[in-house]
Design brief:
The complex is a heterodimer of chains A (245) and B (338). By secondary structure, chain A is α/β, with parallel strands linked by helices. Chain A has helices at 45-52, 75-80, 98-102, 117-131, 149-162, 179-194, 206-212, 235-244; strands at 7-16, 19-29, 34-39, 60-65, 68-70, 83-86, 167-171, 198-203, 215-220, 223-229. Chain A has two domains: 1-82 and 166-245, P-loop containing nucleotide triphosphate hydrolases (Rossmann fold), CATH 3.40.50.300; 95-163, no CATH class. In chain B, strand 2 (180-181) and strand 3 (184-185) form a beta hairpin. In chain B, helix 4 crosses helix 13 (265-275). Classes of the chains: A alpha/beta (245), B mainly alpha (338).
């Protein structure tokens, strides 16, 4: 299943002035694979996410997509490669409707740039019906500010799926969610996996990761210290690696 | 008001209340309501006491139509910028500077039809400059444009001294910007046309969506691939350009420019936007709100004048209107993001 990884990091190092945030980091993400990127604060998880989303460029080493060496210089490069990052609080605009959020930056317009509102609304309705199995969202005209944390994330994920993303980077997706919303989110990740969409869960919460991930990459001090498939490890061993390295 | 079947059985009884709630949920809903009530009250009173309260007299309506467009145009520009999450305090000075440049050039023999676009180009340029300084140095636009407010006011004096300039363009120009059409003041018609154009731009065009996204949550807009820096610079340019356009309307109407004119207008423009339901944090607001905010300030002033309130009371009422509107907005915003 992981013969030709969708995305691969090869010996990536990232320095910010005198600080080395990432040191010779290598790992891959296969098609339809769910990876838990674990590690304590300061392990370099966020830098890794920013690097994969194209916000940072590696100081040395490189990324490859479908086996082709590539370079992400901005956010839209990673989007073109089918990668979407979903941050906890920065994915959506509260003061805009769900429809406008789904099509934010990718509006359907006529030749003059005017919005085709009817078409966008219809698609948004479809997206909500098919992808978001979280109750309570009854209309795509609702303002995102009126949604709960879990509903917001569901909308962000639905948006990514609608735009045919192959890899979702979920940055601390469960930290602000209720128990029920967390369950719904993890189930959504599994459903996406069934549809061959890969996910990377960047999280502190080993239990949530263990529920859905196929493989775990544990980072410490900017480098990978452990890379293991779920069947070869246990929560106890993962915890030990996170805490003790 | 029974519980379960209520929605099915009695939709008509429920609808007005629902509509009312939807109206209030709109960024400009509450101001629209207040505006309509005010108009109904004024018109009723004017019809009952036509001699005492000359609200509907042709002279009064003409005064209103001439007064509103200048503040209105400034507010449209400032409002777009506020929705993008930035302020422009320099528009009052830019308004004076561009008008003076236009008047001086026309006095020197340039056609007003060239001098006016030149004024707008200067306004756009100053707006872009404000935007570049704000973004390149990561400064609050409040401070950058406060600098602009003083700098361009000084530039007015440097350019032409502290003297009034006559503006005597070709009659076609005066007709276009200060004449009347179907009994309506040309400046007011320009304002209405611009309100419509801004409505299309902000609520029906993808650029508007990008402005709301940039002001509402800049990291999210950036993450999705919107060039938020460019959006903000365009919004700054719009604010500068509209300040220049307001200057053209005022100058064409009066026939001269004072170097001190427009002082305090920037604050009135921001006030109109706040009254119209724009958030001070960006991302929330509507063009209809800006329109109503500008109308509201002038209507209240006008009514107080008609009631023969002494001039120095006026600002107190406007002040109460602004703070009251801000409190209302804060309340609605908290509800919106709860």
């Amino acid at each position: 299943m992981v013969d030709t990884p969708i995305l691969e990091l090869h010996g990536v190092t990232k320095r910010f002035g005198p600080l080395t945030a990432l040191k010779d980091l290598s790992f891959h993400i296969g098609e339809g694979e769910v990876i838990g990127l674990l590690g304590d604060n300061g392990a370099g998880k966020s830098t890794t996410v920013n690097l994969i989303s194209g916000i940072h460029k590696p100081s040395s080493g490189h990324l490859s997509v479908d086996g082709q060496q590539t370079m992400f210089t901005c956010r839209s490069d990673s989007a073109d490669a089918g990668i979407e990052t979903i941050y906890q609080n920065t994915a959506l605009v509260d003061s805009l409707s769900i429809t406008r959020n789904i099509f934010m930056g990718r509006e359907i317009t006529n030749g003059l740039g005017f919005l085709k509102q009817g078409e966008m609304r219809e698609i948004a309705m479809e997206v909500l019906k098919s992808a978001v199995h979280i109750s309570g969202i009854d209309s795509p005209d609702k303002l995102v500010g009126e949604l709960s944390g879990g509903q917001k994330q569901a909308v962000a994920i639905a948006r990514a799926v609608h735009f045919k993303r192959r890899v979702l980077l979920l940055d601390e997706p469960t930290s602000a969610l209720s128990v029920r919303e967390t369950e719904a989110l993890l189930n959504q990740v599994l459903r996406l996996k069934a549809g061959n969409v890969s996910s990377v869960l960047v999280t502190h919460n080993i239990y949530h990761a263990y529920q859905v991930c196929d493989r775990f990459v544990i980072m410490s001090h900017g480098t990978k210290v452990f890379d293991v498939a779920k069947e070869d490890t246990s929560i106890t061993q993962l915890t030990e690696y996170v805490v003790l390295t | 008001m029974t519980t379960t079947a209520e929605g099915a059985i009695a939709p008509p009884r429920h609808t007005p209340r629902l509509l009312f709630r939807q109206l209030l949920a709109h960024p400009a809903g509450s101001i629209l309501l207040v505006f309509v009530i005010l108009q109904v009250a004024c018109i009723t009173w004017a019809l009952l006491h036509p001699d005492d309260f000359r609200y509907l007299s042709p002279q009064n309506l003409a005064i209103l139509m001439r007064a509103i467009p200048v503040l209105g145009c400034l507010a449209l520009g400032v409002g777009v910028l506020m929705i993008a999450g930035e302020f422009d305090l320099s528009v009052g000075s830019v308004y004076a500077l561009t008008a003076i440049v236009m008047a001086v050039q026309v006095d020197a023999g340039m056609s007003a039809f060239i001098a006016a676009p030149l004024a707008i180009a200067i306004g756009l340029g100053i707006g872009v400059l404000n935007g570049l300084i704000t973004l390149k140095f990561g400064l609050p636009s409040f401070i950058v444009t406060l600098g602009g407010l003083m700098f361009w006011r000084g530039a007015v004096l440097l350019y032409n001294g502290a003297v009034q300039v006559r503006f005597d363009p070709e009659p076609a120009f005066t007709g276009l910007f200060a004449g009347t059409l179907f009994g309506l003041n040309a400046a007011f018609l320009w304002f209405l046309a611009l309100v419509f154009a801004f409505y299309l731009l902000m609520h029906r065009h993808k650029f508007g969506n990008h402005v709301f996204a940039t002001g509402g949550n800049r990291p999210a807009a950036t993450a999705i691939g919107i060039n938020t820096g460019r959006v903000k610079i365009i919004a700054f340019a719009i604010a500068g350009g509209m300040a220049a356009f307001a200057g053209i309307l005022a100058t064409a109407r009066v026939g001269s420019v004072q170097p001190g004119q427009g002082t305090g207008l920037e604050l009135q423009a921001i006030a109109a936007c706040v009254i119209g339901g724009l958030s001070l944090h960006g991302g929330r607001g509507s063009v209809i709100g800006i329109f109503l905010g500008a109308m509201m300030i002038h209507t209240i002033t006008n009514v107080l004048l008609l009631l023969r309130a002494p001039g120095f009371y006026l600002e107190m009422f406007i002040a109460m209107l602004i703070v009251g509107a801000a409190i209302l907005n804060q309340f609605i915003e908290r509800k919106g993001t709860a």
